[in-house]
């Protein structure tokens, strides 16, 4: 299938193994078919990945031609000593079936952040009355989850900053105000703060769709921010829709292309943008991103790790099907946000 954009990835982005996935369904020791959109952090002396697993696909006339016909979705842990080679836990970690709240029927798209040696999870929750964004704490032994906060509908793609700023917690998020846009996608990145991770407010627009020339459909947070000397470095997803496009993937019309961008926020005032990439950071280009998958032409970064040697590892879902890894140097990424 053809690439859906004329943009190209930043020249100093290096795809690990030429874009071959670091995690796919064949590596999961339980039922799995789509393994993607993972959160990744360093925790308890190892790299920890919490991935989304859509499983139990009901076959259509050909692979992925039946649409969203899956038995369920769960979250699973994988672990690594170096951030490159991964091994999955023997059992799934968490799913809506483990909740006492019968209103929630699916949990997905995890994002991980470590704050003061505690591991926090942001997630999307499908309910019978709208899509909610959740925040939970995961126990140190990675065995249990305690939900702290659930948003009103419709809000998602939440990510937490890894420390308090001026004695407040901060998060980025993507509300979905469909009524104000005649039912069409036109979503932006917002920022809110909280005294306790439970009650959130003082919300304000951070980055509007109109500011990014390679997006015309929606923007949203991607991987949680990392702290640098120059500011908070954070990824975002940028979506371009071309209504002239026809069939692509299993859907009758898949007209969207997801790309990754990056921006730098002020350390003391994260509502202030220092700068953002004027061109995309990562664009669908490889076989796993363009030719093969459930939804092709999708790049969705969910984890970013800054190493001691200033290498930045960026983990991203490709075509809603597999998890991949790209690396770059910190100074190169910051240069995109300050030029």
Q: Would you give an account of this structure?
A:
- The chain has 339 residues and is mainly β.
- 4% of the residues lie in helices and 45% in strands.
- It is built from 2 helices and 21 strands.
- The chain has helices at 287-291, 330-338, and strands at residues 14-15, 34-43, 46-55, 72-80, 87-88, 104-115, 118-127, 130-138, 145-150, 155-160, 169-175, 189-194, 201-207, 218-221, 226-228, 231-241, 256-265, 273-276, 299-306, 311-318, 322-329.
- Strands 14, 15, 16, 17 and 18 form a 5-stranded antiparallel sheet that branches. The chain has a 4-stranded antiparallel sheet with strand order 1-21-20-19. It has a 4-stranded antiparallel sheet with strand order 2-3-4-5, with no helix packed on it.
- A hairpin with a 2-residue loop joins strand 7 (118-127) and strand 8 (130-138).
- The radius of gyration is 18 Å and the shape is globular.
Please name the defining characteristics of this protein.
single chain, 339 residues, mainly beta, 5-stranded antiparallel sheet, 4-stranded antiparallel sheet, 21 strands
Strand content: 35-45%
Shape: globular
Largest sheet: 5 strands, antiparallel
Question: Average pLDDT, to the nearest integer?
Answer: 92
Distance between the termini: 35 Å
SSE pattern, N- to C-terminal:
EEEEEEEEEEEEEEEEEEHEEEH
SSE-based structural type: mainly beta
Give Rg in angstroms: 18 Å
Contiguous runs where pLDDT drops below 50 for at least 5 residues: none
* Secondary structure: helix percent: under 10%
